[in-house]
Every structure is written in structure tokens, then in C-alpha cells.
Design goal:
Elements: E1 17-21, H1 49-61, E2 66-70, H2 80-88, E3 97-102, H3 107-116, E4 121-125, H4 131-138, H5 143-155, E5 159-166, H6 175-184, E6 188-193, H7 211-219, E7 224-226, E8 236-240, E9 246-250, E10 263-266, E11 271-273, E12 281-283, H8 284-288, H9 293-307, H10 328-331
Parallel strand pairs: 1-2, 1-10, 2-3, 3-4, 4-5, 5-6, 6-9
Antiparallel strand pairs: 7-8, 8-9, 10-11, 11-12
Helix pairs in contact: 1-2, 3-5
The structure holds S-adenosylmethionine (SAM) and iron/sulfur cluster (SF4).
The site of S-adenosylmethionine has 20 residues, from β3, β5 and α10.
Length: 333
């Protein structure tokens, strides 16, 4: 297919990866992500299925080759599977990969349909295998559903990567067991440092766990072989000799990964955020709903490329406000 002007930012980074949040709503309330009484957006502000589809096609036309659907929890949106199918039809026709990030609670119901649409890989967030701790962390008793969802995804032929936020004194002690379990099931796994986005009920700083310390701890028992960077993403991978599996580390706080950034994020209301840690944004909903959506969208994407900052400036420290007031559930990680 012919592609209009590719998306290249002011630092000569080619933007080829879109993370599209389809809803800010969620059926869990992870303590590091959102407060118990999270206020969700009015439904009228959220892009319709048709708008999400049109937007995605405009991005593909500008050289976006990978789309990740995220949220909030993408699978709580009722027409989500229709979008997955519609975008699945672009695979091989501009789109190289369609994927999603989910908490897994509804994956058992949708795994077959997702695989049928052409999705090959999903990321499932799982911070613990302990049902009580899962309930404390997510404020919902849903571990069994998530494990069932992961099994269903695997049975449907989807490659599953487990994403785990490392939290000091909370799931820290269970990390080796989670790695063993994930690798034993044939899943890759990635550990993530908690990021200061949006107000939550407690203090994130108390539970911030730098991943270099986790790596040191794992190396007391295991041999970790560095793998070459081949994902184009922020994770740095190792092979754990003892389990045979791949383990990734996403370290936005201890090791900045912005120089090779190839991505942009769009919220469910059509705000394009040029950087996960920044405030720079353009309003794609206004463009979509204007009299000349094609021209307005093209102009908005050009603006996004001009304003994308060189790097984020996350800091996590006592008493410090979040780097951005919006929660991770707005931009989907
Ligand atoms: N609900 C889906 C899920 O949990 O996978 C998709 C959206 S969720 C916002 C995407 C990822 O962001 C999850 O892996 C979650 O653990 C992570 N996350 C949420 N808040 C975070 C924070 N403040 N710092 C680091 N990761 C966070
Ligand atoms: Fe929901 Fe994902 Fe945030 Fe947990 S991390 S509250 S599952 S959006």
C-alpha cells in the first residue's frame, strides 16, 4: 500500500508503533495504578468504534506498522472484538502486528476471537500468584479468572508475555517464583519499575523497587545471560539459564530508554500523548469530528511529531507529586 509522509519526530526518530487505549475503565483497581474511587470518563467523551477504526487507518497510512490495544482494561469495552477484527484485516496490508495488553480477567471469553482476528501475541499483567495478595493489590478477587484467561490464550495459540510491576515489600519476595512459573508455562516475562503517574491512595515511593537490585538478587541463584536488543522497545532481555526462559527489565527510572523511542500513545478520548512521561499532546478527537477530518488529522499528526520531547523526566522521591496527573490507565502503559 502507498504510505503518506512517514511519522518522524524532531529528533529523527521514526514513529512506527501506536499504543491505543480503547477505554479508561477497568474491572480491577490496582493500587499502584489508580485510587479505589477512580473517576472514569463520561462515555460520550470516548471515541466510538468507527472513530477508533478511522484513526487507526490514518496512522497506518502514515507508516504505523504495529498497534497495541490497551486501556484501562481493553476487554471490558463491549465492541472491542469488532475493532480487533476490523484492524486484523489490515494485517499484511500496512500493519505488521496487532496486539493487546490485558489484565486477563476476560481473556478466557475472548482468546479464540482474538486469535481468529490475526493477533499472535498478548501481554498479560500479573503481579503475583498468591490469591490473597492479588486481591489486596488489585482490590478484586480475580486471580483464578486471570490464570484461566492465560491458559485459554495459550490454548488459542497466542504467545503470552507476563508483565509484572515490581513492588518493594509487596510482591518482591514472590518474583523468583513468578519467573519460574511463567517460564515453566512457556511464557516470556517482563518486570517493570513503578512509574509516578496520577494520584493513588498511598505513596508509590514506599514501594518503588529499582530493578538493578532485583537483578542482583536473582543473580545470587541464577545465571542471567544478556540477550541482544532486538525488540526495538524499552525492555532489556536476559535468558535465565536455569529456567531457559526470557526475562525483560523495563527501567524508566534507573535507566532511561528514550533515545530509541518509536512510539506514541492515544487515549480513549483521542488525546495523542507524544511521551508517556510528558504533557505534550494534540487533540485527535477534535480533528476527527471537524469538517475536514483527513486534513485536520494529518496536521495534528505533524504537530505531534514537532512536539514529541527528547526524553521523559520521571523522578520518584518522597513528597514529590506525580510526573503527570493522568493515570497509566489513560494511556495504557
Ligand atoms: N488493564 C490492562 C493491564 O493491566 O494490563 C492494560 C492497561 S495497564 C495501565 C498497562 C500496564 O501498566 C500494566 O502492566 C500495569 O501493571 C502497568 N501499570 C499501571 N500503572 C503503572 C504505574 N504507575 N507504573 C508502572 N506500571 C504501571
Ligand atoms: Fe486496571 Fe490495568 Fe490499571 Fe490494573 S493496571 S487498574 S488492570 S488498568
Amino acid at each position: 500500500m502507498s504510505c503518506s509522509t512517514p511519522l518522524v519526530d524532531a529528533f529523527d526518530r521514526r514513529i512506527s508503533y501506536l499504543r491505543l487505549s480503547v477505554t479508561d475503565r477497568c474491572d480491577l483497581r490496582c493500587t499502584y495504578c489508580m485510587p479505589e474511587k477512580m473517576k472514569f470518563l463520561p462515555r460520550k467523551d470516548v471515541l466510538s468504534l468507527e472513530e477508533l477504526h478511522k484513526l487507526s487507518l490514518a496512522f497506518i497510512d502514515r507508516g504505523i506498522t504495529k498497534i497495541r490495544l490497551t486501556g484501562g482494561e481493553p476487554l471490558v469495552r463491549r465492541d472491542m472484538i469488532e475493532l480487533v477484527h476490523a484492524l486484523g484485516r489490515k494485517l499484511g496490508d500496512g500493519l505488521d502486528e496487532l496486539t493487546l495488553t490485558t489484565n486477563g480477567t476476560r481473556l478466557a471469553e475472548f482468546a479464540d476471537a482474538i486469535a481468529d482476528a490475526g493477533v499472535r501475541r498478548v501481554n498479560v499483567s500479573l503481579d503475583t500468584l498468591d490469591a490473597n495478595l492479588f486481591q489486596t493489590l488489585s482490590r478484586r478477587d480475580r486471580l483464578a479468572d486471570v490464570l484461566q484467561g492465560i491458559s485459554a490464550a495459550q490454548a488459542a495459540g497466542l504467545h503470552v508475555k507476563i508483565n509484572t510491576v515490581a513492588l518493594k515489600g509487596i510482591n518482591e519476595a514472590g518474583i523468583p517464583r513468578l519467573v519460574e512459573w511463567a517460564h515453566g508455562q512457556g511464557h516470556d516475562m517482563t518486570l517493570i519499575e513503578v512509574m509516578p503517574l496520577g494520584e493513588v491512595d498511598g505513596q508509590r515511593v514506599e514501594h518503588y523497587l529499582p530493578l538493578p537490585a532485583v537483578r542482583d538478587r536473582l543473580e545470587q541463584d541464577w545465571t542471567l545471560d544478556d540477550l541482544p536488543d532486538d525488540t526495538g522497545g524499552p525492555a532489556r532481555y536476559v535468558r535465565v539459564q536455569e529456567t531457559g526462559g526470557r526475562l525483560g527489565f523495563i527501567t524508566p527510572l534507573t535507566n532511561n530508554f528514550c533515545a530509541s523511542c518509536n512510539r506514541i500513545r492515544v487515549t480513549a478520548t483521542g488525546e495523542l500523548f507524544a511521551c508517556l512521561g510528558g504533557a505534550e499532546k494534540v487533540d485527535l478527537r477534535a480533528a476527527l469530528r471537524s469538517d475536514d477530518p483527513d486534513a485536520q488529522l494529518a496536521a495534528a499528526l505533524d504537530t505531534a511529531m514537532r512536539i514529541k520531547p527528547e526524553r521523559h523526566h520521571f523522578r520518584i522521591a518522597d513528597g514529590e507529586a506525580p510526573a503527570q496527573p493522568r493515570h497509566m490507565s489513560m494511556t495504557g502503559g
